[in-house]
Protein: Dolichyl-phosphate beta-glucosyltransferase
Amino acid sequence: MAPLLLQLAVLGVALAAAALILISIVAFITATKMSPLYRHEEEKFFFNAKGHREALPSIWDSATKQLSVVVPSYNEEKRLPVMMDEALGYLEKRQKYGSDKVRVIKLVKNRGKGGAVRMGVFSSRGKKILMADADGATKFPDVEKLEKGLNDLQPWPDQMAIACGSRAHLEKESIAQRSYFRTLLMYGFHFLVWFLCVKGIRDTQCGFKLLTREAASRTFSSLHIERWAFDVELLYIAQFFKIPIAEIAVNWTEIEGSKLVPFWSWLQMGKDLLFIRLRYLTGAWRLEQTRKMN
Structure:
């Protein structure tokens, strides 16, 4: 009986190793090299308050504002106005605003959330760049918490630092409201993030993140993933470049209308996490310590 169990164990290990090698080969072959951000002609401009086209700025230009806010939006007619009212009410004290404060970049095709955020970041003018979700789940005044967290990281190496909003402190409450299946998926995803990609950050997926301009240009210029798991690769890149990261608890409320389909979205993100790790491990994707910025 013992020899049979030993043979089965050896066979299982061999099959697992063969599967891992096969997946690594597939990850390597299917990896797409990171290309410079391509803009369609329509994506190079925005319309100002007078209805005239103006060229969008570049993140490689010098900053002309203190803060830029990037809000990716896809079919958000119901949720976006509420979020914008809160954000602009906080930032502008309900004053009039125009294209100098709000600019809409229309994408010719759906690039995914990560692709949309990347496009917005590369068109930003601020010394600091805030990523915020269109649903307004995080209370906008919590940007002050992120700013404090960012300042607490000083001195910033090469002016680079990141503050991540976090919902980890709400985990016990969310578990009580979730089904056992969704809780299992959540824990499985957190384990994969920790095991494969990012250590020390409990909540990588909160869409409320504040980056210095230098940290944004360094990380987003190396980003490959354009779907929901782009946050994980972003933080993986940041940790590779030893960019200091603060995780800051924020107020968060679940808002109806999420486009995430619990099982299939988590499955897709799990596959992305595995491929992120394998593609960097096999050299299909590379990060250079000294990177020339175009």
Q: What stands out?
A: Confidence is low (pLDDT under 50) at residues 290-294. The domain at 64-253+260-282 is CATH 3.90.550.10 (Spore Coat Polysaccharide Biosynthesis Protein SpsA; Chain A). The two ends are 65 Å apart (CA to CA). The chain has one domain: 64-253+260-282.
